[in-house]
Amino acid sequence: MVSTATPLCAFGTPAPDFDLPGTDGQRHTLASCRGPNGLLVMFICNHCPYVKAVLDRIIRDARDLAALGIGCVAIMSNDPSDYPEDGWDEMVRIAQEKAFPFPYLLDADQSVARAYGAVCTPDFFGYNASLGLQYRGRLDASRKDAAPADAPRDLFEAMRLVAETSQGPREQIPSIGCSIKWRST
Fold it and tell me: How far, in Å, CA of 16 to CA of 81, rounded?
């Protein structure tokens, strides 16, 4: 497992389009996932200890962001050949077991992760209503273990600001997680 930090936010970068299968049996696109006030695109997976440590907080924040008009989507781009826990059946199981309030999509050819410049799990991309990038930071102070329950909700507060003003915070702390498991060429 290689720990990787996300790059700084490139404010205003447009959200790349996608059309991917979801664990709910539907196909989802950028347009179908966005909310009236923006979109949070999350690159996650099932096996990563960083994701496991915060998955319940991701679900909580996605529910709270939906109330603010922010759509949320999770994308799994890892190559599951070395990590069977990231396979399709496990994606379906986790999404159902945890009652994900967002689509959980499979990026089998990894083209969407490459288009976004995703580097790790979790990797968060927060967009405003015009689908310009406004947040590329962490969920909160959690790492491989969850931060204290009263830790500031960095991602939620940033996306609330985006929903209200269309602008993200100028200072952002990078997310850190396991590197994306790229297919060998």
Answer: 26
